[in-house]
Design brief:
CATH architecture: Orthogonal Bundle
CATH class: Mainly Alpha
Largest sheet: 3 strands, antiparallel
Number of strands: 3
Number of domains: 1
Structural class: alpha+beta
Strand content: 15-25%
CATH topology: Arc Repressor Mutant, subunit A
Number of helices: 3
Helix content: 25-40%
Amino acid sequence: MVSPAVGRPVTAGRAPASSDRGRYFTLQQAAVAFPAFTPRLLRRLVQERRIPFSRAGRCIVLAEADILA
């Protein structure tokens, strides 16, 4: 199915492709790269499910696009 407004395929509610989401950060890396966010705040946002995240083994990984949103 193609979206009439943009002419791109519709992804049926799936998350955007990884290339659309930019770089990925662990919680510590995100806290260093974005000084407005402390590791504690990021952990709280993940725990409350207020920010999308992925798991890579034991690490929680955040996409740059999700942090900036």
